[in-house]
Amino acid sequence: MNANQPKDLVSPPDPARPEDATARPIRRRAVTRGAAWTLPVLAVATAVPAFAASPTCPVPVAAEAKESNTSDRITVTNPVTAAPIPIGTTISWYLQRQDALPLSITVSGMVGLTTTPLTQALSGRVATFVFTTTSVIPAGGTVSWVYTDGLAVGWNYRSRITVSFAGTSLASCGASFSCTSVVQGIFGTTYGTTCPT
Question: Where are the domains of the chain?
């Protein structure tokens, strides 16, 4: 140690290195003072991840796909970043036919849901089914149902699927909706997300 050097110097500057030519000595008191200021910041920083990691309110997404020649399946997916959807959540399915054929809609093949009645006549081209979840839908999980109008051709439907958390542990999340549509023509079937009018 150099005799002119202060005793509380932690790392002496090296004049042979240009970046150290202007370096000031680091004193023990400065290190201690800096450490004292970082402790409260570390305490606050450790509390933040608990809030950042909390799950978000679910905004489920619905999709429709062909199940058979006379039926389609609607699947509602809980996003992978969302909180689990609790048992007892209400899913309302508003279905609108785009022509005036007097048909009935029958629901079957429910997964994770229950509803009654299973068959409804279209009234003014529309029907509404109300489902209740029978199990928790985890993040990334799904529920689904099959529906048919008995016809193998001429499908032309639009639907709105509304998920309501009223009366559940996610009541503060509010309701969300998603739309599906199907049009069957001479060139095939087109699935989409057009909402009812």
Answer: 1-54, 61-192
The average confidence (pLDDT) of the chain is 81
Closest CA to 159 of 126, 188, 130, 132: 126
Query: Which two structure tokens, joined as six digits, stand for 64?
Result: 């429709």
Q: What is the mean pLDDT of residues 15-27?
A: 56
Q: How far, in Å, CA of 173 to CA of 156, rounded?
A: 33
Counting every residue, how long is the chain? 197
Model confidence band, residue 46 (pLDDT cutoffs 50, 70, 90): very low
What is the Cα–Cα distance from 120 to 107, expressed in whole angstroms?
9
Q: What is the mean pLDDT of residues 74-93?
A: 96
Q: Which CATH class is domain 61-192?
A: mainly beta
Q: What pLDDT was estimated at residue 41? A: 40
Question: What is the reported pLDDT for 52?
Answer: 42
The pair phi, psi for residue 3, each rounded to 5°, is: -65, -30
The strands making up 119-121's β-sheet, listed across from edge to edge, are 61-68, 71-77, 142-148, 104-111, 119-121
Count CB atoms within 10 A of the CB of residue 31.
12
* Alpha carbon distances (Å) from 56 to 20, 52, 83, 170: 50, 10, 6, 10
pLDDT at 158 over 70: yes
Beta bridge partners of 147: 72, 107
